[in-house]
Design brief:
Blueprint (H helix, E strand, L loop, with lengths): L2 H12 L1 E3 L6 E7 L5 E7 L12 H14 L9 E3 L19 E3 L9 H4 L1
Parallel strand pairs: 4-5
Antiparallel strand pairs: 1-5, 2-3
Amino acid sequence: MGIKGLFKYLLLITFVVSLSACGGGESTSGETSSGETQTIVQEQKSPTTNLVFADQALADCVQSLIDFQGYTLVEQITQLTCSGLSITDIEGIQKLFNLETLDLSSNQIRDITPIAE
């Protein structure tokens, strides 16, 4: 099986991708009155209105999920199923940083580097 065949095989089988949730927080350090260093984690709040996708079918799928679930923050999106929608470009999906489960099966995606970032 050549590279092209292997790539097609991987797309068919492995597009149920489990991504480890990566943190969306920002750390800051400061000193307490006793001189101890204290680290405070500040949560980033990313509104779903800031999401932009290169592929309209992917954008529509994500927007449908947002509308159906009533999500207002990107952090709330942990699962996404957009199978069989003729999606060709997944640029922008890396902004869904809390994704744990992603199903993009039965699409025509040729470049998966956005999920590798």
